Amino acid sequence: MQEKMQNCEKEKLVALTFDDGPSNITEQVLDILKQYGIVGSFFLIGQNITPDSRHILERQLAQGCEICNHSFTHNDMSKMSSEMIRDEIKRTSDLIRDTAGIEPKLFRPPYIALSDTMYDNIDLPFICGEDSRDWDDEISVQGRIDRVLQKAKDGSLILMHDKTDNLKTLEALPTIIEGLRERGFTFVTASQIFARKGIDPHVRHRLWSNVFQTN
Ligand SMILES: [Zn+2]
Fold this sequence. Notes:
TIM Barrel; six-stranded parallel beta sheet; 15% strand; binds zinc ion
């Protein structure tokens, strides 16, 4: 029993998170996760959820992955009024609920652009993450791998993108997963990482990149 508890305390957890889907590469990301028998969290753009992408959300849930909210239009929300902000969140959460039958529990701000009005009007915890910079096509496959492997620590949320045509991330992903495995990490969803570490993500004005961050 004691041994089990010690193992639990030492458990090194990491959450792979993917923004901007569903897209034309999301199913390939899911193929890779399935191949390694691991899960990830997908922060969806509401306007990308269509009848044609419904099967992708179903597959994400069937594989044990998490679906989260990444706004409806992916515009900079720091410039928006309370009403616009609420509309971005509600439309996306409604679509996810209607399409996949689950309630998104986490939010990632587009461009990590923030305002007090956003914190006042969005009830979901705000997630950032250790940035692989894979939104920048100039960053090579190896550059993406190196960034993730250097930045990952116990409790890290890793920020990547399953955005349209992001082929370098598809290429980097197997090496990233193998590298994290070699370093002893277990892969969980973003919500699971908070739950397994016993941390409540609902902290006002907190932008999470690692569940142990103190700023
Ligand atoms: Zn995004």
